[in-house]
Design a protein that fits this description.
The structure holds 2 protein chains of 2 kinds. Chain A has 15 helices and no strands. By secondary structure, chain A is mostly helical. Chain B is α/β, with parallel strands linked by helices. Chain B has a 6-stranded mixed sheet, with helices on both faces. Chain B has a 6-stranded mixed sheet with strand order 16-19-20-13-21-22, with helices on both faces. Chain B has a 4-stranded antiparallel sheet with strand order 2-1-4-5, with helices on one face. The chains are: A mainly alpha, B alpha/beta.
């Protein structure tokens, strides 16, 4: 039974919806168990993330991060590679952004700094993906293992750098100095005051993320390189038969993937924190895996999934504030359930749905 | 022999989603007979046998074994009812001995010794009764394929099978080994066992079966006594129209060589030499067939010539250049650039990406051609137009370039590959198993197309394990055995002669171009 036998709206709409519904149902049960009203909880979550300008602003800010890390995982998926090193690549991406901003922020305006920050973050992110890619391509060391190990190395490396050469002189904080205006992206609230984003850190990188979606779509489905990436991912033997070099494909795909993950740092560092600091990635790289899974490795799906996870982040924060019984950890439980049902148990409802839909299909075929 | 049939199937139905794989199948198999089931790929033979062996469950219908109505929930139940199955791909543990393989799954107790002892004496009895001789202490990996198959049969008999199902048993055998298998089957029948033989080879049906049932598109279209029928009639029943079993072609008029291979040696990843010092040439306007039992180096030969695999030594002269294959880094795309097309042996694994659409597959390997690009992006309109033209020319059905190739039948998939490789107008075409898993109607078309290409003065290197196909198409036949070319024959080579060469027996002094 292939997915192709189901109508597209079922495959891309109904099944993800059912998975989500199941996740929320189980989450609801958990909320009941700790003695809170689940309907009220949902209300707070939705209102907190979408109910007012500032909430939406935060949701979109988180979603921007998820779009970058989700795209990173998705591009690798298309080549059959599972890049779970988005966390480390994004962390290193911060280095690239920080270099650009620290060097230029007092000399030029932000829109001159931005291209350098983009290139810097993409380069450092890609560089961090390069070693695992090279090991996979030439030695067969599995990227799942190597990329996850590189997350730890990235973490240690950044701590070392931020405690040493990058630290502001005389400061006790393991972080760089704060960027001047030339190293800060404008907040959307300053550009569109009418939306009322308030203090939400959502900034211009949202548009950068959307542009990245378009470019990834073009890359994967409209270019020769994308054709080669998809060929290699779908059937490596056939790809070799077609003269597609596995080494080249693996390395290039991972570089693009790492670069996209690295660009997440633009939103966080140049857009919000305005300084490079310890642990700014805080799991966005890992959640990107769930976003890519839920979004079916398609940019449109990734945007939707990123907004959903943005809602969970923002609404969840509101929820733990409003309902003290529901702690921050409970929110992580709910996120975990969404990932479980939408990612790992993706195929749970599928056989039933196929049974539900195929008889009518067969009838149609007969009538035709 | 009693009157109760060994197997009776009544109105068996099985659907896989929208596919109706078995429609109201009725079948009666007499006890103590060899019953053939013939049909094209996808006719539903394997589904039916899987129902009988408990892999699938029929949606409705009855199964009667020895006149008793039974349900077969799994293969364990099937074995208990005395049904044994010899699969197309053997289910043996390579690094176990014959004895251990026979006992595997029927050990009788936690300790092995008792079971092994019983098995040893039982094997001896079977050996005497059915003339099935295999040394019980040899490891499977040291046995030739024909003997491995014998172990599979022994396994079934050890589990006291009364009914033996053989699924395409001769696919991996030399003609001599196949003949030997048929002798064994005859002995089994004479001892009162019932044999169900599934095959798509008409010749085997005629040679060995008592009764033959023909399946077409999930239906049982006929059951006839073998002696009352003919190959032509069976072929017609299988396809639903009359077919030409021979290939019409005029004698070749070969011109200058377009591909010359000298002293090619290939070593595989385990360090085993799989192609040994092979030299030959292919001239424009001829089809050179490489005959041989599967696994004698033909696959590696094709892969090396097409740039997929690296050679240890050897040179290749093609498109006016001489390439040293031991140092060349040319990949498959580079070889295409030297005007070499390649229809690979395994279209599912290599020739197509089945999760891709037809039009995407129609440029696989040629996607870098500037004709398919507009600036940085691929020119999908041109690619689709091109695909539609190929679909029309090669009568690919359904004629929908947007459909995933997984949804095409074997014959149409092969036509997609063939169209892609032939329409780029190569000087040399490498073709591996062009009609494996392809229905008879499409075989006719593919053979005709290859002969047309030959008549257009292209050179074709054809590798096939189907001796009939080699003999029907080739203008010259090279026989490969154990990585070497052990003989060369002309267009009208005798089957028996080729069969002996394929088995590594060279008793003819007339080796013309062999590389001994």
């Amino acid at each position: 039974m292939t997915a192709g036998q189901l109508p597209r709206w079922v495959d891309l709409g109904l099944i993800p919806f059912l998975n989500l519904a199941a996740a929320f149902l189980v989450s609801g049960l958990v909320v009941v168990l700790i003695g809170e009203n689940p309907l009220e909880a949902v209300q707070i979550l939705v209102w907190g993330s979408l109910g007012y300008g500032e909430g939406i602003g935060f949701t979109l800010f988180y979603a921007t991060n998820f779009i970058f890390t989700g795209l990173a995982v998705a591009v690798a998926f298309h080549a059959g590679l599972f890049n779970i090193g988005g966390e480390g690549q994004a962390y290193l991406g911060g280095l690239g952004v920080a270099f650009a901003c620290l060097a230029l922020d007092s000399v030029v305006p932000w829109y001159v700094t931005l291209p350098f920050a983009i290139i810097g973050s993409a380069l450092t992110g890609a560089a961090w993906a390069f070693i695992p890619a090279w090991l996979q391509a030439t030695r067969g060391s599995h990227v799942v293992i190597t990329t996850i190990m590189f997350n730890f190395i990235a973490s240690s490396l950044m701590v070392y750098l931020l405690n040493g050469m990058l630290k502001e002189q005389g400061s006790m904080q393991p972080e760089t100095r704060t960027f001047e205006d030339g190293g800060r992206l404008p907040f959307l609230n300053d550009i569109f005051p009418s939306f009322g984003f308030g203090y939400a850190p959502v900034n211009l990188s949202l548009f950068l993320a959307l542009a990245a979606c378009l470019l990834v779509w073009l890359l994967i489905w409209r270019t020769k390189l994308g054709f080669e990436i998809r060929s290699f991912g779908a059937n490596a033997t056939a790809a070799i038969y077609a003269g597609i070099s596995p080494v080249r494909t693996i390395v290039i795909t991972m570089l693009i993937s790492g670069g996209l993950a690295g660009m997440m740092a633009i939103n966080e560092i140049m857009g919000s924190q305005h300084r490079l600091l310890i642990d700014f990635v805080t799991g966005y790289g890992f959640v990107g895996i769930a976003v890519a899974l839920m979004g079916r490795a398609h940019p449109v799906g990734i945007i939707l999934a990123a907004i959903l996870f943005g809602m969970l982040y923002q609404g969840g924060a509101e929820l733990s504030f409003e309902m003290p019984n529901i702690t921050r950890d409970m929110i992580i439980v709910i996120q975990g359930l969404v990932i479980l049902f939408a990612g790992a148990l993706e195929y749970m409802f599928r056989p039933a749905i196929i049974r539900l839909f195929t008889p009518s299909q067969a009838l149609k075929a007969k009538e035709a | 022999m009693s009157e109760t049939p060994a197997i009776e199937l009544r109105k068996i139905n099985k659907r896989f989603g929208p596919v109706h794989a078995n429609k109201d199948i009725d079948l009666v198999v007499k006890k103590g007979s060899i019953h053939g089931i013939i049909g094209e790929n996808g006719a539903g033979k394997s589904t039916l046998m899987s129902i009988l062996y408990g892999f699938y469950h029929a949606d409705d219908g009855d199964i009667l074994i020895d006149g008793k109505k039974e349900t077969i929930p799994d293969s364990k139940a099937a074995i208990a009812m005395g049904i044994g199955m010899v699969h197309q791909h053997f289910m043996l543990v390579d690094n176990f001995s014959v004895l251990e393989n026979v006992v595997l799954g029927a050990e009788d107790s936690q300790l092995l010794a008792g079971g092994l002892f019983r098995a040893r004496s039982e094997l001896k009895r079977l050996e005497e009764e059915y003339e099935l001789r295999v040394d019980p202490d040899t490891l499977i990996e040291d046995l030739p394929v024909g003997l491995q198959q014998r172990v599979e049969i022994l396994k079934a008999l050890y589990r006291s099978a009364e009914i033996l199902i053989l699924d395409e048993p001769t696919g991996v055998l030399t003609p001599a080994e196949a003949d030997h298998l048929f002798k064994i089957l005859e002995v089994l029948r004479n001892e009162g066992k019932t044999v169900l033989l599934i095959t798509h080879k008409l010749r085997e049906i005629m040679a060995i079966t008592d009764t033959v049932s023909v399946m077409r598109r999930g239906e049982m279209v006929a059951t006839v006594e073998t002696k009352d029928t003919s190959m032509e009639q069976l072929a017609e029943l299988m396809v639903g129209r009359s077919v030409l079993l021979r290939v019409d072609k005029k004698p070749a008029e070969p011109k200058a060589p377009v591909m010359e291979v000298s002293n090619l040696t290939v070593t595989d990843s385990r360090g085993v030499q799989v192609v040994k010092d092979v030299s030959f040439s292919v001239r424009a306007g001829e089809i050179v067939g490489i005959a041989g039992v599967s696994g004698n180096g033909q696959s590696e030969l094709l892969e090396t010539l097409s740039g997929i695999r690296r050679a240890t030594t050897g040179t290749l002269k093609i498109h006016g250049e001489t390439i040293d294959l031991s140092t060349s880094t040319l990949d498959a795309a580079d070889m295409r650039g030297k005007s070499m097309g390649h229809v690979p042996e395994d279209r599912h694994r290599m020739g197509l990406i089945n999760s891709f659409t037809e039009y995407e597959n129609s440029i696989l390997g040629y996607h870098r051609d500037p004709a398919y690009s507009k600036g940085l992006l691929m020119d999908l309109a041109t690619i689709k137009k091109n695909a539609v033209a190929e679909i029309e020319k090669y009568d690919i059905r359904p004629p929908n370039p947007m459909l995933k190739t997984a949804n095409f039948s074997g014959g149409n998939q092969q036509k997609i590959v063939l169209a892609r490789e032939i329409e780029r107008d190569p000087e040399v075409l490498l073709v591996g198993q062009p009609t494996r898993g392809v229905d008879i109607g499409a075989i006719e078309f593919i053979h005709r197309r290859l002969v047309e290409l030959r008549d257009a003065e292209k050179g074709i290197l054809l590798v096939s394990v189907e001796l009939d196909e080699i003999r029907a198409l080739s203008d010259r036949v090279l026989v490969m055995f154990d990585g070497r070319i052990v003989g060369e024959r002309g267009a009208n080579a005798e089957e028996g002669d080729l069969g002996l060469l394929m088995a590594g027996v060279d008793n003819s002094p007339s080796v013309q171009g062999g590389m001994q």
